[in-house]
C-alpha cells in the first residue's frame, strides 16, 4: 500500500463493507447481494436519509449548509444498480498535495515523489484494476478531459494545493522502488504463500 492513506492508489482505500438493509423489501436477496461498483464513505449519509424517508436540510437556523456530495445506495441495496454513480459522476480527492479524480472506470492521479512519479498518471480500471499501465502518454485526449474535470473539482471545492511536499526530504532516504514480480499486483500472478506444517502445528502446552 504505497503512501498509505495519504495516497490515492486504489489499494489504499478500496476496502470491503458489509451493509444490512433493514427494509422488508431486502429479505428476498438478503445475504446474496454483492455489489462491486464504485462507492464512497460520503454515500453513507444520503443512504441513511433515503432509507429514513427524509431530506438533507438546506440550512440550520440562518446558516446555509454545503451541498451533500454523496449518493444514496438505495438502488444498490435493492439490486437495481451496481453503483450509485453514473459515468457522468465523479469523485475527487486531495491530501498533502497528492490528488486524484475518478469518473466511472477512469482515474487521473498525481502524487509527490517518492511515493509517486510527480507527473499526471492515467488509468482505466476496467482493463487495469491494479493501476499498472499508465495511459497518460498514449491517450492525450482523455488525459486533457480528465484534467479539466480536476480543475472543475478544484474550483467547486476551493481546493488549495501546496507548492511543497511534506515528503520531499524522503526521496533520498527511502530504498529504491523495484517491482516485486513482473505483473504484480494483482495476486493472480503470484502463488499464495503456504506456511510450513510446523508453523501451523498446535502450540505445545
Structural notes for this entry:
The protein has 205 residues and is α+β, with helices and mostly antiparallel strands. It is 19% helix and 12% strand. A four-stranded antiparallel β-sheet has the order 3-4-5-6, covered by helices on one side. Strands 1-2 form a two-stranded antiparallel sheet. A hairpin with a 2-residue loop joins strand 4 (98-103) and strand 5 (106-110). The model has no long low-confidence stretch (mean pLDDT 83).
Structural class: alpha+beta
Number of extended strands: 6
Helix percent reads 10-25%
Q: Please outline the major beta sheet.
A: 4 strands, antiparallel
Strand order of the largest sheet: 3-4-5-6
Low-confidence stretches: none
The radius of gyration is: 21 Å
Order of helices and strands: HHEEHEEEEHH
How many helices? The count is 5
**Mean pLDDT score:** 83
**Which band does the percent of strand residues land in?**
5-15%
**Distance between the ends:** 38 Å
Amino acid at each position: 500500500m504505497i503512501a498509505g492513506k495519504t495516497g490515492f492508489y486504489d489499494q489504499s482505500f478500496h476496502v470491503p463493507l458489509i451493509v444490512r438493509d433493514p427494509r422488508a423489501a431486502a429479505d428476498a436477496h438478503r445475504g446474496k447481494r454483492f455489489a462491486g461498483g464504485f462507492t464512497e464513505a460520503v454515500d453513507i449519509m444520503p443512504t441513511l436519509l433515503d432509507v429514513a424517508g427524509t431530506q438533507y436540510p438546506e440550512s440550520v437556523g440562518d446558516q446555509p449548509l454545503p451541498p451533500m456530495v454523496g449518493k444514496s445506495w438505495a438502488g444498490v441495496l435493492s439490486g437495481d444498480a451496481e453503483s450509485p454513480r453514473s459515468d457522468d459522476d465523479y469523485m475527487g480527492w486531495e491530501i498533502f498535495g497528492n490528488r486524484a479524480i475518478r469518473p466511472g472506470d477512469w482515474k487521473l492521479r498525481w502524487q509527490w515523489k517518492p511515493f509517486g512519479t510527480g507527473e499526471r498518471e492515467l488509468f482505466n480500471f476496467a482493463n487495469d484494476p491494479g493501476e499498472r499501465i499508465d495511459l497518460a502518454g498514449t491517450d492525450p485526449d482523455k488525459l486533457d478531459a480528465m484534467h479539466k474535470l480536476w480543475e472543475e473539482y478544484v474550483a467547486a471545492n476551493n481546493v488549495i494545493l501546496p507548492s511543497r511536499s511534506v515528503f520531499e526530504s524522503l526521496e533520498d532516504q527511502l530504498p529504491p522502488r523495484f517491482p516485486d514480480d513482473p505483473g504484480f499486483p494483482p495476486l493472480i500472478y503470484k502463488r499464495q504463500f503456504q506456511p510450513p506444517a510446523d508453523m501451523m502445528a498446535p502450540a505445545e502446552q
